[in-house]
Amino acid sequence: MTDAKEILKQHILKFISVNDEQLDYVFSHFEIINLKKGQSLISEGDFIDHEYFVLDGCLKAFYFNDNMKMFILQFAMPTWWVTDFDALYNKTRATINVDCISNARILSLSNENREKICRELHELEYFFRWRTNKGYVALQKRLLSFMDNDAKFRYEELLSLYPQLYNLVPKHLIAAYLGVTRETLSRLHQSKS
Asked: What is the mean pLDDT of the chain?
């Protein structure tokens, strides 16, 4: 199992330059959490004051509508961040759920500690702003793909961007992410083979 501090360090160093002492200080504000497959991290209605960095495993952020239809908003794989960002930043209760698709190890960072780190280390302020912007762009691209492309294109795009997902995530969850039925997903997979 790779060291949590090293994973976070490599992730941060892809985007900013900070020294080992600064990285140690940043890491001291995180808490390591081990989760089991199926375990809930966030439930609708929870008060949210943390965001989470995935070290290993896979989580999903999802929503149930009034008809209890599940919509997957995000899969969170290693080096991805996940939380209910609306609830975190607006200090409201969660409107989404986050749980584990597989056993997972994550780092938890409180909103208070993130703000403290950003005030003290401007490089980290840049890092978190960059990360938020990147997440917004990805969400915008996904929304536009839903509006402009058919299920076949969205399926092929998902496999192209994240080929490991098809073997990592149960098929009914991929179908929920793509907004199609499990049967449609099977047809799309067979037509690609």
From this structure: 92
